[in-house]
Amino acid sequence: MTFRQSGRLDTSGVSGGGRGGRGGRGVAIGGGVGGIVVVVIALVLGVDPAQLGLTGRGFDEQGQNSSSAEQFQTHIDQCDLQQANSDTICRIVATTESLEDVWTAELPAQVGMNWVQPHTNIFTGRINTGCGAGSSDVGPFYCPADQEVYIDPAFFDDVLVRRLGGSPEGAAQMYVVAHEFGHHLQTMLGDIRRSQQDPRGPSSGAVRVELQADCYAGLWAHYATSTPAPGGQQPLLESLTEQDVDAIIQTAEAIGDDHIQKSGGAPVDPGSWTHGSSEMRRQWFVTGYQQGSVSACDTFSAQL
Ligand SMILES: [Zn+2]
C-alpha cells in the first residue's frame, strides 16, 4: 500500500505517549458508565500476556517516561506523506487519516451516522488510559471508555513479525491500525459490550467482536484507494496490490488464537479463544475487503 508522495498530512489526531497528565484524570471507571467496557480490547490477547511470553521485554520498571513521549511527539510532528511509505510511526499517522477519510464517507452512506475520529496514542512501556493502566505487553489496543487507540510501534517487529510470523510489510501495520479503528466503530454502534458479555470460546461474543473488527479493516481497504481526501484531493493511498492483500492475510492468520497457542508451545484450546482462529480472521478480513459493506460484517448473526 503506497501513499501518494505529496500533499498535506494532518498529524493532530495522533500524539506521543498520551495527551499529557492522564494519571490525574478523573475518568469514572466502572461508575455511571453503564455497559461501557472498561477493559482494553487488545489486538492479540484477551488475557494474560505471559501466554505469549511478552512480559519482561526490557521496558524499565517505570514504563513510559516523559522523554520517550516527547521523542514520539517530535517524530510525529515531522511526518509527511512521503515518509509514511517508509517509517512506521509516520505510516500509523497517515493510516489514521486514510481511515478518517473512508469512514467519514462510508458511515453516513451506509449506516446514516457521522464518523467521530478516535484519537491515537503512540507509546512504549506503560500508559494511563481511560481503561486504567495500559501496557505494551498486550500489543496495540483500544480503550472503549476513552475511545482512544494505543499503539507501541515496536510491537510490529518485535512481536508481530519475529514471534508470530506476521508480515513485515507496511500493509500489515496498516491492517492493525484499521482493526483498532474497527473497535471504535463498534463502540459508536454499541456492539463492543458484547465482547465482555461472552468473553471466551470459538463462537463467543468476544470472537465475534474481533472478527467484525477484521471485517471493518477489510472494508477500509476496499475503499482506501478510491475515497478522495478532503477538498476533493486524490486519495491518500494510491495503490493496494495483491502482494499487500497477501501481507495482510498472512498477518491476520498469524494473530489467530490457534496459531498463537501453537507458537507459544501450548495446545490448541478453542474454549479459551478470544479473537478467533487464523482461518476465521483471514475469512472476515476478506469478506470486508471484497464486499465493502458494513452489513456484510454482521458477525453476530453469522454461523461461526
Ligand atoms: Zn481487536
Can you describe this structure?
With 304 residues, the chain is an alpha/beta fold. It has one domain (2-20, 36-297). It contains nine helices and nine strands. The strands form three sheets. The chain has a five-stranded mixed sheet with strand order 2-4-8-7-3. The chain starts with a strand and ends in a 13-residue tail after the last helix. Zinc ion binds at residues 41, 43, 179, 183, 210, 213. The chain crosses the membrane at residues 27-47. Residues 1-23 are annotated as: Disordered.
Overall radius of gyration:
18 Å
> Helix segment count?
9
Measured as a percent range, the helix fraction is 25-40%
Broad structural category:
alpha/beta
Strand content: 5-15%
What can be said about the biggest beta sheet?
Answer: 5 strands, mixed
What's the structural domain tally? 1
Spatially, the strands of the biggest sheet line up as: 2-4-8-7-3
Total E-strand runs = 9
Query: Which ligands are bound?
Result: zinc ion
| Through-space gap between termini | 31 Å
What form results from the Cα inertia axes?
A: globular
Average pLDDT score: 88
- Which regions have little confidence, pLDDT < 50, spanning 5+ residues? 20-34, 56-62
Order of helices and strands: EEEHHEEEEEHHHHEHHH
